[in-house]
Amino acid sequence: MRRIYHNGKVCAGRTFLGRPRTRHRCLQIEPDLTDLMAMSRDANELLWAWKGWRDAVGRPMRDLYPIYVNLSNVAAVNKGFSNEGESWLHRYEDPDFIDDIDYLWESIKPLYLQVHAYVRRRLVDYYGSDVVDLHGPIPAHLLGNMWAQEWNNIYDIVEPYPGHGAIDVTNEMKDLGWTAENMFTVANQFFTSLGLESMPRSFWAKSMMVKPRNREVSCHGSSLDFYKNKDVRIKMCTEVNMQDLFTVHHEMGHCQYYLQYRNQHALFRDGANPGFHEAVGDTVSLSVITPSYLNRIGLLQQSLSNHTESNINFLMKLALFKLVFLPYGLLVDKWRWQAFKGEIQPNDYNQAWWNLRKQYQGIQAPIPRSPHDFDPGAKFHVATGTPYVRYFVSFVIQFQFHKALCDAKGEQGPLHLCNIYNSKEAGRKFRSMLKMGASKPWHDAMEVMTGQRKMDAKPLLEYIQPLTEWLRNENQGKFVGWT
Ligand code: LSW
Ligand code: ZN
Known about the structure:
By secondary structure, this protein is mainly alpha-helical.
């Protein structure tokens, strides 16, 4: 399944972003299809890529996945678990974990529904009501991402106040001639400004930062710990754009954690829980996206505008990235837990997937699906057996971390403008949690960092608060939800 995913290509004699393509050039998931889904505004072309990717990598896994489920369960039972899903959940060492994440989602859902209703209305305006139903789930190919997991790439379609600054610095990065290496250097500089570890010489020598020309590689960004001295690395086909600037920080966050806990016993050289590992770099990114920081690294001219319009624009972009991701971050493993438990059978795999997509995200397949399709397999983490609910956890707790570090720095203003760059106080707090690794239950690590022992959606909701009010006003009298 891993090989099917990595070799997956979509080929046909069609145009790419309006330009004619040479007939035999095939599109890979990174960067070709990713860019097409982000940039194309032609519903037919988007559908072609969406369907093509699922035909190329989903369907061929259809009959392999049940074998993987059975084998994983045999291994899990031999380890003393009832199935593979239970073995994944064991990492969270908390019998209430599922109840807790369900509760978090329930507290975030009302706001998600508001964003969903607003975006759907703008998509109806853009594509027409024959493509998007004002009262139905949103077709999954129009949201700027192959999996409709983040919608920030269609910010231009839904921008609340045109002309008030979108804070996308991709063009500035390109104009200034930024390179992948620059992006890594800037990320490293952020961590060292907090008094945290600098990436060692071997990191710079042995990481893969750009896509090699002479051989095929798996481009999905990842980080590696070789558990030997400071040998930590990133493998990524970095593109010069703002999204990949965040991905670099994300992957370097994993490496920072590896370095911080390297003196722990081998068994404890791991995250407090998998969600903590995912949250390290993203916490830093919440400072990187602030106007004050982008100004400091020369990517934004105006330092900070206190106009309501630009703040709403900024928060809309953030919501399309971080808030919109949450239902997806939850449903991927909801589906796999059911499959591992045997609650759904192979013939129902794909239907169950789309039931969850509709229930949680309010989206639907743009064309009819059949039991011969296997759309979950079109996602990296399903094809490669990588658990996913860690990202849901991360997208919640990174706001708790951000708030705690902003408090440590002594910031007074609103959370979305807080930038912890250079704060040694924030760095000290961060380090005291990171160096614990997995040596204590994660609730203890959470307490060291935030003073409280549980996951909490309040900091996320506090961060987005100005947008919440704006949306409620904007959606007044309009249809919210889906039938
Ligand atoms: C990780 N990669 O680092 C994984 C690799 N453009 O994109 O998938 O769905 C073996 C074991 C190999 C910022 C950061 C585990 C690999 C914005 C994260 C959604 C693709 C970038 C991929 C795991 C980055 C969640 N992230 C996803 C990844 C691995 C995510 C993000 C995300 C990353 C997730 O954890 N948006
Ligand atoms: Zn990660």
